[in-house]
Amino acid sequence: MRQGIHPAYGLVVFRDRAANYAFLTRSTMASEKTVQWEDGNTYPVVDVEISNVSHPFYTGTARVLDTAGRVERFERRYGKKG
To answer: CA 45 to CA 38: how far, in whole Å?
Structure first.
């Protein structure tokens, strides 16, 4: 690899403010804010709007769309091509 062209890769805490959930992982994201983690070390923290803890798909609150009804309504409105 060429030196000096890649961003720094290190441990970062991602914090989901909506669900009050945080996790430690490796990333190239950078932040001026820091947080003290459970292991006693201080890491940069990145606040995110949504994560797997608060996303409707993962929490089971996602709505399922009735695509068959939409197709039938389209065919009734514009006629089924035969």
So the answer is: 13
| Cα 32 to Cα 6: distance, rounded to the nearest angstrom | 19
Give pLDDT tens digits for 69-79: 777 788 888 88
What does the angle CA 12 – CA 13 – CA 15 come to, to the nearest 5 degrees?
145
- pLDDT tens digits, one per residue of 57-69: 656 666 666 666 7
| Nearby residues of 12 by Cβ (< 8 Å), 6 or more positions away | 24, 25, 26, 27, 29, 31, 43, 44, 45, 46
Give CA–CA dist 56/5, Å, rounded: 38
Can you read off the two tokens belonging to residue 44?
């940069």
Residue 13 CB: number of other CB atoms within 10 A?
22
Single pTM value for the model: 0.64
| Pairwise CA distance, residues 27 & 10, whole Å | 6
